[in-house]
Amino acid sequence: MISKLQKPIDSGFNSKSNAHEITKDVDLNGKISIVTGGYSGIGLETTRELVSSGAEVIIPAKRLEIAIKNLEGIVPKENVIEMDLSDLNSVKNFTDGYKENFNRLDLLINNAGIMACPETRIGDNWESQIAINHFGHFILTKELMDMMAGNDGARFVSLSSSAHSLTGVLWDDIHFLSNPYDKWLAYGQSKTASSLIAIEFDRLMKDKGVRGFSVHPGGIITPLQRHLQKEEMVALGWMKEDGSPTELTKNFFKTTSQGASTTVWCATSSSLNEIGGVFCEDCDIAKRKNEVDESMQRYFGVADWAVDIDEASKLWELTEKTLKS
Is 191 among the residues known to form the active site? Predict the structure, then answer.
């Protein structure tokens, strides 16, 4: 079942809107936000815009020293706190500490992630991309949900990707234990999961005044591509043989500020006050794939499996069971 709200609302913004355009008239004074990965790439731009609008922003960081350096002059050093999404105990330590030091949470933005990396096993022989991009963020989100309940305008934003279109959840072999590892299918599955977590969050929390959104930020060259070789980026159509950008990249790739804009829009826009449980891109609610020109379906629109309410509930329940075992 797909929400009837999964359709564009003509937000007035577009794919090239910068994040500061979104926050122009936004007042976040008194609001507290958490941004995972909020110290590099589009996460840093997201942090910058939330701070400029008056929010206090807490940054969980695996690379603490780098985060503190990158956030100098933006976020106080004491608001950068160690957390490793690949270590569930580390995530739990962070959430326990947050509960001790703060009494509310207004914006939770799950921005961090890994992409198309070599096969790695963590935890209970879990495939690393689903474990980091989904399991780690699931624990973070579930532990902090109660701190968001009842806070006027509180929102959860989970970053997905156009790669969700590669596959839905591989229910029979989530961790590639039976089939050969495919780094792109693993990434695509994790980004479908990143969308589904927002869909189920919204269902669970909307009666408590909290809404959830998933976001495709757009194509942006950031440190996320660190595992990709030049040959792969050429094959993907992002780069020419001489290392220069292709026409696809020139036309559709975004700056980091433009890449952060949909996240910021979902986190702050008053036009979404009565909406939630939807997948967004280019500063608007995305079209479903069957409404997008066939030649562009790989890059735009949302696959039904990433916003299916039943799939979202199934994944939430399976994740809870997996993490309890």
Answer: yes
What CATH architecture is 19-219+255-324?
A: 3-Layer(aba) Sandwich (3.40)
* Cβ neighbours of residue 30 closer than 8 Å, sequence gap 6 or more: 54
The pLDDT value given to residue 31: 97
* Nearest-angstrom CA–CA distance, 287 and 5: 10
Q: Give pTM, 2 decimals.
A: 0.91
Return d(Cα 167, Cα 231) in angstroms, integer. Answer: 23
- Residue spans in the chain of domains classed CATH 3.40.50.720: 19-219+255-324
Q: What whole-number distance in Å separates Cα of residue 46 and Cα of residue 70?
A: 13
Per-block mean pLDDT, blocks of 10 residues, the chain (325 long): 95 91 94 97 96 98 96 97 97 98 97 94 96 98 97 95 95 98 97 98 97 91 50 54 60 82 97 97 95 82 97 98 89
Is 98 labeled as catalytic in the residue annotation?
A: no
Tell me which of 183, 191, 254, 289 is the catalytic residue. Answer: 191
Q: Is 306 exposed, middle or buried (0-12, 13-18, 19+ CB in 10 A)?
A: buried
Q: Does residue 181 carry a catalytic annotation?
A: no
First to last CA, the chain: 29
DSSP SS3 for 178: coil
User: How many CA atoms lie less than 13 Å away from 235 in the CB half-sphere?
Assistant: 5
> For position 305, what pLDDT does the model report?
98
Catalytic residue among 3, 11, 40, 160: 160
Beta bridge partners of 159: 215
Active-site residue identified among 17, 158, 187, 261:
187
